[in-house]
Amino acid sequence: MKLIGIILTHDEAHNIHDCIKSLWFADDILVFDSYSEDNTVEEAKAAGATVIQHAFLNYASQRNAALDAVKDKTDWVLFVDADERVTPELAEEIRAVIQQPDYAGWRIPRHNYIFGKLTLGAGWYPDYQMRLLHVGEAYYDPARQVHEVVILDGTQGTLKNPLIHYNYRDIAQFHRKQRAYSEYDAKILHDEGIQPKPQNFILQPLRQFWWRFVTLEGYRDGLHGLYLSLLMARYEFRKYRLLAGLWKR
After folding, report:
1. What is the mean pLDDT of residues 171-175?
2. What are the structural domains, with CATH classification, of the chain?
3. Residue range 222-240, pLDDT digits in tens
């Protein structure tokens, strides 16, 4: 069974070499780049990867385009983000499971490092990601443009060894991404016809904090987990404020 590792990139010159290096066990490596303005393409080629450039519309369409680009060249694909790394233990497990004929896809747990700290609570572990896909039996739901969802035509499996994710290097990156996510989520609620109620601005952030810190055991990470749970509650409030703005307009 042939395996191609696929990395979606845009301005990832600082990450791409180490990411490619961690995919040493794949038969080929494809960097699917959305016209980076830094040295991502040059760094990827120097590290031995094939590069295809494709205009970015959204994450779901970009991943589907990458799948389409390799559909006649491989049996399996492994999607890895540029800020992720495959451990030797995970590599060995992947090579073993792709020999099993009865699976359309495998989800992989992630170890998220947030602000440099391994975060095991508040929803950041096991954080399963459907990334190992049997070509022809998997595609991304085009309706889910962010937080992509894989649709499988077959059985799903779950791997044991985690993918390493160097998530949110600093607070500035965290705020940038959460602002984008809250805007996207507010638009989804608006498109579904959901209007905010006055109590939403209080109860929804409180529920988000309780869910992150208590239900998802953010307390296991101490002050770090408390801080992250408060931040996520803050962006839950922002989501409803943005939703109110959409209805006002």
Report:
1. 96
2. 3-167 (3.90.550.10), 171-248 (no CATH)
3. 999 999 999 999 999 999 9
